Amino acid sequence: MMTGTTIFVIQDKELLRAGLTALITQKSDLKLVGQEGSVQTALPLIRELKPQIVLLDLRSITAAELDAPNAVRQASKHSRILMLIDNDEGEVFAALSSEAEGYCLREADFERIYNAIQTVAAGDFWLDSAIARKVVKALLDTMAILATEPTDKAEFEREELSARELEVLALVSKGLSNQRIAEELKISAETVKTHIRHIMKKLVVNDRTQAAVKGLKRGLI
Questions:
Q1: Is 82 helix (H, G, I), strand (E, B) or coil?
Q2: How many CB atoms sit inside 10 A of residue 186's CB?
Q3: Could you tell me the residue range of the domain that residue 199 belongs to?
Q4: Are residues 84 and 178 in the same domain?
Q5: Residues 135-152: what's their mean pLDDT?
Q6: Which of 6, 12, 77, 110 has a 20 to 30 A CA-CA distance from 45?
Q7: Residues 116-130: pLDDT tens digits?
Q8: Residue 22 belongs to what H/E stretch?
Q9: Residue 41 above 90 pLDDT?
Q10: Cα 120 vs. chain centroid, distance in angstroms?
Q11: Nearest to 14 by CA among 38, 44, 47
């Protein structure tokens, strides 16, 4: 009979996946039941194996698989998702929008990832402190915007965005990185950066998170 917390790893980089799975197998209270390089190939196995924890690297999710966490839940409703992400604003908010059960930095040492696995397996939520700091900062920035938001209609009209800028802003609000937005809209990442600079200038904000907040409040997206 299998004992220990069952783990399924989704990581598209073969060397990283091999290293991660090797470390998991060294822990007597963890049981690696499967590994795949993509969500698409992992889902049938997750449906069959029903692991307690799905360790999912955000970068393994393609532009066509943005709803991957929900797909995992549909395949195995009792599986809990621990997501590995980079300490990057775009990745952080893209990951948080997926409503996983835990978020751990990709660069963390394995003992920290191991602690995250144990915490999530116990039914608790895990959020690395560095990620939490970004979330708190975004919340404070949002509160500042809402407190000082002008209501002048003329200013609103002066800040009108183009159709393409509205498309970019909508994807920014979903937490997508510049590269993901580029893939979704079939344009270059450099073009996305240009659009975001124009959006921030028109909305009079300092970063993409503030742009998303202001866009939502104004009903632009």
A1: strand
A2: 7
A3: 149-217
A4: no
A5: 61
A6: 110
A7: 999 999 999 998 887
A8: helix 14-25
A9: yes
A10: 17
A11: 38
For the segment 211-220, what is each residue's pLDDT rounded down to a tens digit?
887 787 777 8
Cβ–Cβ under 8 Å, residues 100 and 72: no
Number of domains in the chain: 2
For residue 57, the 8-state DSSP code is E
pTM confidence score: 0.66
pLDDT of residue 1: 45
Alpha carbon distances (Å) from 175 to 37, 81, 187: 23, 18, 18
User: Cα dihedral angle (76, 89, 65, 5), rounded to 10 degrees?
Assistant: -20
Task: Give the chain's mean pLDDT.
Answer: 84
Look up tokens 């195995």; give the residue. Answer: 76
Residue 194 in domain: yes
**Last residue of one domain, picked from the residues 77, 99, 128:** 128
pLDDT tens-digit readout, 53-74:
999 998 888 655 667 888 999 9
Sign of CA dihedral 80, 85, 90, 93: positive
pLDDT at 87: 77
Q: Can you list the pairs that 102-108 forms with residues at least 24 positions away whose Cβ atoms lie under 8 Å?
A: 102/126, 102/127, 103/127, 103/128, 103/131, 104/128, 105/130, 105/131, 106/57, 106/59
Chain position carrying tokens 């959020």: 127
- From residue 108, alpha-carbon distances to 40, 85, 94, 112, 115 in Å are 26, 10, 19, 6, 11
